[in-house]
């Protein structure tokens, strides 16, 4: 990015760019920033969009409050980040195949929503999502935050020898068996999944590097997550488990994290390539309803 850096302020592991057209307030030292001065109901000017993109690249999560937008405006803003995609497993929203929802009704158990542990979304796809654009329609009065962990920082703090070992590993991710596994659970424990889709079996499994690089900057991040994980390539499941457990612990370190507190009309964009995230279901008897688009990423390199 050609945005100038403000000397001396290091946040999210790099010098913070200077912003002139938008307000940018980091959420923590690790990742995330709240953006002000932008109205997502209208197209963005070129210079504002340039700074929004610079903030997204730097902070990995950008947060906007009070964005009372239509589904069409949501989709139009999403397209600045790339091509929208449908997903085989995530329930669709609003009659659009390329919008999804995460919904837990007030009476429903936590098991109805996917993955309350740290994960990246849909890593089984050949080109896993670049980012999600997600907006809250309903949120609990207190609780129900989403937590994020910066996986660049998690990778950068590993020892050199371990980094070298990880650089040779590839991970087999598969989404093929999630419907059959779900069907075996008791009805009140089942996850809400999309009922039908047109993806082929081949499209539901991919092998990706354990350490991936940003295609423009070359910055490296850990890309290992337990959801959809089958094994390291060339390893069996038992051998894979110990290393996976160790790596799955890393996003839990507080110094890599930020949390987003949802309110109705809070909208965030988060980078699914270089972050892991999880919903925090620390509330009861309230509705939580988030709607989103998913933008296709590059094949991990
Ligand atoms: Mn998720």
Structure description:
The chain starts with a strand and ends in a 5-residue tail after the last strand. A hairpin with a 6-residue loop joins strand 12 (211-213) and strand 13. The protein is of the alpha+beta class. The strands form five sheets. It has an eight-stranded mixed sheet with strand order 3-4-5-16-8-18-7-6. The mean pLDDT is 94. It has helices spanning 46-59, 71-78, 151-156, 160-167, 178-184, 237-249, and strands spanning 5-11, 14-17, 23-26, 33-36, 61-64, 92-93, 96-104, 129-138, 146-150, 170-174, 205-209, 211-213, 220-222, 229-232, 257-260, 267-271, 275-279, 288-296. Manganese (II) ion (MN) binds at residues 114-115, 119, 121, 277. Residues 114-115, 119, 121, 277 line the site of manganese (II) ion (MN).
